[in-house]
Amino acid sequence: MVHWTDHERHAITTLWAKVNVEEVGAQALVRLLVVYPWTQRYFASFGNISNAAAIAGNAKVHAHGKTVLKSVGDAIAHMDDLSHAFTKLSKFHSETLHVDPDNFKHFGDCLSIVLAATFGTAYTPDVHAAWQKMIAVIISALSKQYH
Amino acid sequence: MSLTATDKAHVKAIWSKAGGKAEEIGAEALGRMLEVFPQTKTYFSHYADLSVKSTQVRTHGKKIIDAITSAVNHIDEITGTLSSLSTLHANTLRVDPANFKLLSHTILVVLALYFPADFTPEVHLAVDKFLARVSHVLTDKYR
Predict the structure, then answer these.
(1) Could you tell me the pTM of the whole model?
(2) B5 Cβ partners below 8 Å, 6+ apart?
(3) Number of Cβ pairs < 8 A linking chain A and chain B
(4) What superkingdom heads the lineage (chain A) (predicted)?
(5) Is residue A49 within 8 Å of A43, Cβ to Cβ?
(6) Distance between CA B32 and CA A62 in Å, rounded?
(7) pLDDT digits (tens, 9 = 90+) for B110-135
(8) Which of A21, A91, B65, B79 has its CA 20 to 30 A from that of A63?
(9) Which residues of B, range 2-31, sit inside 8 Å of A by Cβ?
């Protein structure tokens, strides 16, 4: 069980309310595939992701970015019991998708950067810290069922 | 993961904007590192104020950004340019190698924050590689 201060909860939920899930999700996933190109190994079925321009314009990448960000929203809704809430999703990543959990951290870093680019000075150090903690909790929950 | 000519061009372009705001960017990157990754505070127990606004954090943040600027300006000779800083980190500062990734991350966040239009995915990639190279040089003499 994670301990959240009122300030952290407020910082996370307030910012989340302003997030355009489709936009931010797409941008974060585009960055993952461009900045950490080895992650493209998981997306062979997405068509042309051979260069930055192709990745940025790829409709499947955009759609999947939205899917991933929606799960971040679910995580926030279950932030007090995320390990339990994400049991199935964790098993799915481990047993079906076979994703190396190190990649969760790469995506988390990209998400933090996209939030900074989107919200600018509103992404204050304390809001940034609360979000990095949320991201760390999500990564831990997603990694939990790996064996 | 060596720097391509394109990477070097991207780094120089974004840094031409960042270098001029060295104190601001340095303070934000360092201050955010201390807040987001509290274990890093252990290296600054002698600072009275660890916030982004602190004079000590601003001064030190600027020092860090200025050092990175010199690496950008001598991007083909990073090892030589940062040699004495590398010795300092190995013998005196002895910052655990894991921490370089943390400061590199907050530098990227701050660049995205200040220059959202310029900090494209390709520029992000280039700067990430460049900072990894700088970190490698700075920890090179550790053992």
Answers:
(1) 0.92
(2) none
(3) 58
(4) Eukaryota
(5) yes
(6) 30
(7) 999 999 999 999 999 999 999 999 99
(8) A91
(9) 28, 31
Give the list of residues 6+ apart from residue A120 with CB closer than 8 angstroms, or none.
Answer: B113, B116
Give the pLDDT confidence of B3-12 residue by residue, as tens digits: 999 999 999 9
SS3 B125: helix
Instruction: Tell me which residue of A57, A60, A36 sits closest to B124, measured CA to CA.
Output: A36
Q: B44 and B13 in contact (C-beta within 8 Å)?
A: no
Closest residue in B to A111 (Cα–Cα) = B109
Of B127, B100, B121, the C-alpha closest to B18 is B127
Which of A17, A92, A107 lies closest to A61, judged by CA? A107
Chain B interface test: which of A24, A31, A110 (most B C-beta within 10 Å): A31
Q: How far is the C-alpha of A59 from the C-alpha of B79, rounded, in Å?
A: 42
- State whether residue B52 is helix, strand or coil: coil
Rg (chain A; Cα; Å): 15
Closest to A49 (Cα-Cα) out of A62, A66, A33? A33
Cα–Cα distances (Å) from A65 to A77, B71, B136, in that order, read 19, 35, 32
